[in-house]
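Dataset card, provenance and construction

Sequences and ligand SMILES were collected as paired inputs. For each pair, a complete structure of the chain with the small molecule in place was predicted and serialized as structure tokens. The example below shows a pair involving zinc ion. Curators did not alter the output after generation; any descriptive sentences attached to a record were derived from the structure itself.
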Amino acid sequence: MDMTQMKNEIVAIADAYKEEFEAVSSYIFENPELGCKEVKAQDALCSLLEKHGFDVKRGYGSLDTAFVAEYKSGKPGMTFAFMCEYDALPEIGHACGHNLIGTSGAGAGVVLKEIMEKYEIGGTLKVMGCPAEEILIGKVTMLEEGAFEGIDMALVMHPSDESMADDIAFACVNKVYTFKGKPAHTAACPWMGASAGSAVQIMMHAVDAMRVHFKDYSRVHGIVLDGGMAVNIIPERASCKFNLRALDADYLNDEIVKTIDRCAQGAALCAGVEVEIEQEGPLVKDVRNNRKLVAAVEKNMDFIGEHHIPRTLDQGIGSTDVGNVTHALPAAQFYIGLGGGIGTHTAQFATLSGGPEGKRALGAAVKVLAMTGLDMMTE
Ligand SMILES: [Zn+2]
Ligand SMILES: [Zn+2]
């Protein structure tokens, strides 16, 4: 098989479907929907995949706005998946460019399927519709409910300022600490009370004392959710919430979470109150990109002449539920740049995602995704 010829054909097919893909991306951009409410985006992507011959199942497990699209060649081979995201942010819409993630995943599926048919490439190609990335639950739930079982490799593109073949992301978890004390009149008989508010204050100081011991690139941020009802009542109930992150999910769980929990328990003991500790949402794992996929993505960026830079720690790091997928199977996330030096989750980034910069990135992403899938399926 002549890989160069097949990759040139990927470019030609992607260019031929350019307007069709751009229309889907623009429709999702103009109809931003929050996580688990992405009915229009789901329909647009599923319709595109159905039109191009995929077997599409709308909804997966407990997620109504997920989907799984499949093309079975009928011949032996690996199962390769492209991942889609298509949820938006409140008020600023597609400021994370998920219109481009959804459409590039589905578009790459359409393009690679045609190459598989023409060159009789064995295996199964899947396009995974993963909702609710911004609230970090889509892929975690799909993994738990078995959607990724049988998939050998998975790949996703995220838009960014610059193109990068690799990714770094924090493991991340939110914890809520609720203290329960004993109310009393603050002037008449403060000795009768036990202050949940004091426990919150002590906990904040304890966390600040302990954070110096954490490894580099650990992140610990807390806010007071409830500090009490009135200044003349010893607070019976008070609570705070912490966002905890580290570059390694095991370190986050084994060291940081345990230390912060201990700060809460110590504060409760000190204030003579009770504490209830809750995890809010799933623990999102760090991204551990498969090296083979990263190498292939880099080579394919070079093939289409996409300028790219290395992913480094000083570029700013967030968290993504793609991390959990990369822990469960060989998988990777890479970036295609929109330029302009603008970060995600801003109104300016939304403008780029819906504009000509987004269209350019969409075309490049479809090609790099499809070529990388081809590399893996023909290896
Ligand atoms: Zn985002
Ligand atoms: Zn995003």
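Derived descriptions for this record:
The chain has a mean pLDDT of 97.
Residues 249-271 form the longest helix (23 residues).
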